[in-house]
Amino acid sequence: MASSTAGTQQTHGPHGRLRAIRLDPLEDIGLPSKGDNRYFYASLDAFALLDFKTQEKYYGNIQERYAQLNSLSDGAEGIHTAFASLALDEHEKTEPDDHSVRTKQRYPQCLEHSKELSIILEAMRKVREGIVASHRVDDFALQVYMFVIRTTILLKHMPSYHPALLYLLHSLHPVNPLATLERDEIIGYYILDLACRQNDLAFAYEVRHQYKHRSRVVGLTLRALVHGEWLMFWKLKASMNVYQQRLMDSADGRIQIIALKALGKSYLKIQLTYLECALKCSWDELTEQDKVGWTLQGQTIVKRRSQNK
Fold first, then answer.
1. CA nearest 61: which of 48, 35, 81, 43?
2. Left (φ > 0), alpha (ψ -120 to 50) or beta: where does 91 sit?
3. Under a CB-based contact definition with an 8 Å cutoff, are residues 283 and 296 in contact?
4. Sign of the CA dihedral 118, 121, 127, 128?
5. CB of 294 within 8 A of CB of 302?
6. Which residues on adjacent β-strands are paired with residue 271?
7. Alpha-carbon span 257 to 236, nearest angstrom
8. Per-residue pLDDT, 219
9. pLDDT at 271 over 60
10. Which are the contacts of 267, defined by CB distance < 8 A and separation ≥ 6?
11. Could you tell me which residues come within 8 angstroms of residue 286 by beta carbon, excluding any fewer than 6 positions away?
12. pLDDT digits (tens, 9 = 90+) for 51-92
């Protein structure tokens, strides 16, 4: 029988009294892959994440904490900024620089949220491992994996998103088929990830043919990437939902280079506003990241000078 003090630790105060320390319910249970089968959990009367009821209550806690973070971070954009600061912290452990120091000073609240976000991401991994280890393939398993995929796409956390998507498609879906809309949604994400992030257009077409995916916008996106049709790419991206746009972000750099080459061959001068609209980035970003040797004169960019004969 579980003790009434489960989920707490006792410590001695300055006068020898015992003081209860409340543990974080998301951190209290470890990773199933590391053999953590503890017999207590702060708010659950169950054994570990191999138990179905524990999985469901633990997943409920994840959703609640994520919703709280979402409200504190001004929606998905705020959470994305928090995750960027989380990635920054990991980078700073080995390579601190002036830019990272300035970012921490500018986004102190985001850094606090990033700590909470790292706990939530780790909790998502724990519940996924619990589902895999318990061989669970019911509707709850589908729901969890759909939530993890959508959330980690927004956060651009590929170590969580990619294995979750593959397990859903290759292990859960064959046993407990997804609804048609959800199936098309997930396969669309998979195709866009292959084409945009992994730059594997051949495999993207293969997957599209294998699953008979008939989404018009996904097909046109593949065509735009193959033929370098940068205007079509931007228009298609603007028409996509937020998850598809996040996946397409990975191809922005390639499309910008294609657009730069096309504009550079076509014009001697170009208006700043048009260039920024065509490339979907600011002039400062263009000069810092792409090292473009063009010059800015007022609101006009001089890209190449005609040679006097």
1. 43
2. alpha
3. yes
4. negative
5. yes
6. 300
7. 18
8. 97
9. yes
10. 303
11. 275, 276, 279, 292
12. 899 899 999 999 999 888 877 765 555 555 555 555 444 444
Least confident segment among 108-117, 153-162, 216-225, 275-284: 108-117
Among all chains, which residue has been given the structure tokens 């699953």? 211
Q: What is the pLDDT of residue 279?
A: 80
CB count in 10 Å sphere of residue 190: 24
Task: Compute the half-sphere exposure of residue 162: CA atoms within 13 Å on the CB side of its CA.
Answer: 10
In the chain, the DSSP E strands lie at: 8-12, 18-22, 269-271, 295-297, 300-302
Crossing angle of helices 216-227 and 180-192, in 10° steps, is 10
Backbone dihedral region for residue 16 (phi beyond 0: left; psi -120 to 50: alpha; all else: beta): left
Task: Output the six-digit token pair for 289.
Answer: 């990241």
Nearest to 159 by CA among 200, 128, 135, 202: 128
Distance between CA atoms of 55 and 127, rounded to whole angstroms? 6
In the 8-state DSSP scheme, what is residue 270?
E
Closest residue by Cα to residue 172 from 138, 219, 123, 223? 138
94 contacts: CB under 8 Å, gap ≥ 6 = none
How many C-beta atoms surround the C-beta of residue 106 within 10 A?
Answer: 10
**At 231, which helix (H) or strand (E)?**
helix 230-239
DSSP string, 41-74: -TT-SS--TTSHHHHHHHHHHHHHHHHHHHHHTT
Kindly tell me if the per-residue pLDDT of 99 is higher than 60: no
Name the residue with tokens 């600011």: 282
Tokens of 207: 């997957």
d(C-alpha 286, C-alpha 172), whole Å: 44
pLDDT, averaged across the chain: 78
Pairing relationship of beta strands 295-297 and 269-271 according to DSSP bridges: unpaired
Q: What is this structure's pTM?
A: 0.76
